[in-house]
Amino acid sequence: MIVDQSKCLHCGGCVGSCPQNAIFLNDCVLEFSNKCNRCGRCVKLCPVAALELEAKS
Amino acid sequence: MKTLTCDILVVGGGPGGSMAAKFCAQGGLDTLMIEKKAEIGAPLRCAEGVSKKWLDEVGIKPDPAWIRANMKGAIIKSPDGTSFQLDESKAGAEVGYVLERHLFDKALARDAVEAGARVMLRTSATDVIRENGKIVGVKAVEMGDPIEIRCKCIVGADGYESQIGRWAGIDTNLKLNDIDSCLQYRMVNAEIAPDYCEFVIGDSVAPGGYLWIFPKGNGTANVGIGIIGTKAKNGAAKKYLDRFIANDKRFAHSQPLEIMGGFVSTCPGLDCAVADNIILVGDAARVIDPITGGGICHACRTGMYAGKVLTECAKTGDFSKKALMPYEKMWRDRMEDKLYRNWYAKERLATLDDDTINKLVELISTADIKEVNVYNLLKVVKEKFPKVVEGFEDLI
Predict the structure, then answer these.
(1) Among residues A36, B4, B33, B75, which is most buried (max CB within 10 A)?
(2) Could you say which of B246, B265, B284 is where a domain stops?
């Protein structure tokens, strides 16, 4: 997951919305665990469009 | 590694956590409340509007120290500009104060401390600890150092993030339609009515949610928006909110001093908010009002119920799910019907187009309603537009 740090407001909305509980907000840092299955829900919901799915490598 | 022990560990220092901590400490329990941020009540994630009625119910005395503005009523607007003004005599139940949350939260936390609770800041729970399958505490990081906190029971008051419950095996996942993505500005120098909370509804304004203007005195207001998850994409909340502010003349000379995001759940509460040695309160238990998005009063109520039930449980030392079930009964008896009714109403509102919403607002603005609240509004709608409430008319 790509987090645009210049946009993220650290609101924790993606954390509570993640069906996999794969996101952790540590103060001003969003951490994505390997439980992330790229469902894209956080990308869709972010109020300021700070998240983007990484292209599959 | 440092290990701390307590009877009750409260994770999260918002209103739900502080109320739970206060009532646990008052019950004589060794209570520790941890907060991952550096300050109780900040940064703000809230529109700060509350009704007045419930404060007495949970034993909170209104204090000018944390009341920023006293509302005379509310204005509901539809997309075509039709507005419906509720005055205090009629809107007593649904409008009230605009708070100063950072002071309100601190006042509740101080109450908890006065009752005997301990507080640790910058302490972030990272997982629950299980021994032989039983939850015995949490792993946490305190000011950068890993610690363990052992307890008899955890109160999950970790807000919308609601991770403690999930680590403990309680399903706090939400459906997309039960999530509202929100954004808010603190605007200054706005030409707004100083004592009316304004709600603007309509698919073209705030799809599946609403836009709010909550005045905080001196031309300052919380101006925010909530958009239903199914209709949110590409930063929709910001786009819709920015467009509204740009097109509303009252904000022509107004500027934002703060921007904040935040989500609310709009489901009718969890299937079950307790498990062995854990109890969830407030936003973590998903007990936010699905229509208004208001969560403070429910957080305070559930926090108080949790504290009372835990005090009883401590007498036998039994914090099993079965022993915690009286909590489940208390919050359901008090608010489940209303949560369901407002959930149905929210689901239906999200399907209505601008034309229908214009008609609805016109209807309620001309109806003779003695006391305006969501229930009475729905009753009027049921009379004139039965189709709108089809499927949940029994709850009205």
Answers:
(1) B33
(2) B265
| Chain A nearest CA to B44, separation (Å) | 9
Q: What is the pLDDT of residues B225-260, one digit of tens each?
A: 999 999 999 999 999 999 999 999 999 999 999 999
* Inter-chain residue contact B262 with A17, CB threshold 8 Å: no
Query: Cα angle vertex B14, ends B12, B16, to 5°?
Result: 90
Neighbours of B187 (CB within 10 A): 24
Domain ranges of chain A: 2-52
**Structure letter (DSSP) for residue B382:** H
Domain span holding position B255: 69-99+176-265
Percent of chain B whose predicted confidence (pLDDT) is above 90? 85
Does B176 sit within 8 Å of A48, measured CB to CB? no
Judged by CB atoms closer than 8 Å, whether chains meet at A19 and B263 is answered as no
Instruction: Report CB contact under 8 Å: A44, B229.
Output: yes
Give the total number of structural domains in chain B.
2
B133: left (phi over 0), alpha (psi -120 to 50) or beta: left
Contacts of A44 in chain B (CB under 8 A): 229, 232-233
Which 3 state secondary structure label does DSSP give B208? Answer: coil
User: With an 8 Å Cβ cutoff, is B126 touching chain A?
Assistant: yes
- The 8-class DSSP code of residue B5 comes to E
* Mean pLDDT on B161-180: 97
Look at residue B391 and tell me whether its pLDDT is greater than 90. no
**Is there a single domain that holds both residue B26 and residue B164?**
yes
- How far does B341 lie from chain A, in Å, by closest CA? 23
Q: Residue B347: which residues within 8 A CB-CB, separation 6 or more? A: B177
- Report CB contact under 8 Å: B238, A16: no
Which CATH code of 3.40.50.1820, 3.30.70.20, 1.10.3720.10, 3.90.1200.10 fits the domain covering A2-52? Answer: 3.30.70.20
Interval B281-311: pLDDT, tens: 999 999 999 999 999 999 999 999 999 999 9
